[in-house]
Amino acid sequence: MNLDSMKDILAAAQREEKPLWQIIVETDMENRGVTREDSFAKMAQAWHAMLDASNSYSGKRRSASGLVGGQGEQMRAYATSGDPISGSFAAEVITEALCMGESNACMRRIVAAPTAGACGVMPAVLIPLYRRDNIPEEKMLEAMFVASGIGAVIAYRACIAGASGGCQAEIGSASAMAAGALVTLRGGTPEQVCHAVAMALKNLLGLVCDPIAGLVEVPCVKRNVIGAMNAMAAADMALAGIESRIPVDEVIDAMGDVGRRLPVEFRETALGGLAVTPTGKAVKEKMLGKRNKNRTLTIKDARWKLQRTSSSH
Amino acid sequence: MIDIFDIMGPIMVGPSSSHTAGAVRIGRMARALLGETPVRAALHLYGSFAETGVGHGTDKALIAGLLGMAPDDLSIPLSFSIAEDRGLTFTFSEIDLRDAHPNSVQMEVVGEEGSRLSMQACSVGGGRIRVNKIDGVDVNFTGDYHTLIVHNRDDRGHVADVTYALSQAKVNVANMSLHRDAKGGSAIMIIETDEPIPPLILDLLRRLPGILHITYYEKED
């Protein structure tokens, strides 16, 4: 089937009496012409890459601008020795989101889910739960299939790139995917998955993409935290039986509509919001300086020539 | 139809799927189309690649791709010094390209055996790329398929010869486009296929009369 509406996926699951993840797996098998084992093996690669990224985090690394790095370590220290307001599990989720977002900014290996800028949301909710509850890997992969199906529907009906729809399309989509994965892991019904997705996305509707100096650093890393926390809240609400008054596909369409109407200044161009604050502009100036610096300092044979040349065609 | 692994993926070195992972793939594409190990490269960055390229590691990513690294290679940040060790020299500059995608690069690459390639490509988001120009001729392909690029003289029969050879090898053509600089001049066939093309068939195609040069890019998983 085509992954173009949550309603259709839900209907297929009910008609064929299969869990949501199975519908998504079968769609992948058909789409790529692969076996069930191949499909699961590829999802396992993504899961293992998330775990590797988490395990190889180091608070000593710094991003290109120097603004990002070490925050995950700070949060971890606070969470283990202090008394976090949001509780120890939520503190671990915050830590994981920061670590993953920082790793991305510091050129480490991550899993774009659905984008590199939002790579921290899924692992932030999945990894702490996996470690705490000793969940079998198979179950984690099933939840990830559900999340990817949700992401595919959002990509089809709306968008998942900040340049197309602002941060709501990146962190918002990641949060919706994570919420659906959490409900799946807790044995919620397919309807509850849909409500969780709808609520998670609604809560982040309108969020702009305004990266300082155009880099995936500020505010991107910390927005992974809000995506993860929002996913937990939406999943818990759905598991409590609370329903989204607006059906999930309509919420996704609304997100797409808001994205299309967002001024271009708020779609990854670094021309609005935090990017044009005095501090944001100062960081941009500093990065321009780095760009202009002659590269011969690092590579003897190569020269970073900065005269602007014109194309002949 | 959206591939769910474009949603849960790619597995890549950060920070940006378009500015980092896409840039690696452009470099890899250039290496594949050159058909040999690059020793010299001149890269011209346009638009957002020029504006935010340093902060996103776009420069390191392009060189990493030319060195044959994949988008998830943890050595990408070290590509400049690896290039020095392996004898690849390069220059970067900025360029104004008319009507180009904001994330574009134009490059000239020379291989160890003396082959040359001029290529313009762009990164269109999510790590996906598009090649826009090869050796001055406008083209349009993505690397989402196995891709055969045939340079030939612009006269009759070459398309039939090439596609006949492919059909004999049980290779199905998914997409095909023809480009030329002038009537009777030099022409390029871009053939995207569902199955990989066996090396034997590539050798056969190279020996066909009127075929000047062949390069082949095998799709990556």
Structural commentary:
The complex is a heterodimer of chains A (313) and B (221). By secondary structure, chain A is mostly helical. Chain A has one domain. Helices cover 61% and strands 4% of the residues of chain A. In chain A, helix 5 packs across helix 6. Chain A is globular and about 60 Å long. Chain B is of the alpha+beta class and 221 residues long. Chain B folds into two domains: 131 residues, 60s Ribosomal Protein L30, Chain: A, CATH 3.30.1330.90; 72 residues, Alpha-Beta Plaits. Helix content of chain B is 30%, strand content 38%. In chain B, the strands form two sheets. Chain B has a six-stranded mixed sheet. Chain B has a four-stranded antiparallel sheet with strand order 9-10-8-11, with helices on both faces. In chain B, helix 2 packs parallel to helix 4. Chains A and B meet through helix 2, helix 3, helix 5, strand 1 and helix 7 of A and helix 1, strand 1, helix 2, helix 3 and helix 5 of B. Strand 2 of chain A pairs parallel with strand 3 of chain B, so a sheet runs across the interface.
Chart the SSEs and their pairings.
The complex is a heterodimer of chains A (313) and B (221).
Chain A lengths: L5 H10 L4 H13 L3 H20 L15 H11 L6 H18 L3 E3 L9 H13 L3 H21 L4 H4 L1 H19 L4 H14 L16 H20 L8 H14 L16 H15 L10 E8 L3
Chain B lengths: L3 H4 L3 E3 L3 H18 L3 E10 H9 L1 H9 L12 H8 L2 E8 L6 E9 L4 E10 L2 E7 L2 E5 L4 E8 L4 H11 L4 E8 L5 E8 L5 H8 L4 E7 L4
Parallel strand pairs in B: 2-3
Antiparallel strand pairs in B: 2-4, 4-5, 5-6, 6-7, 8-10, 8-11, 9-10
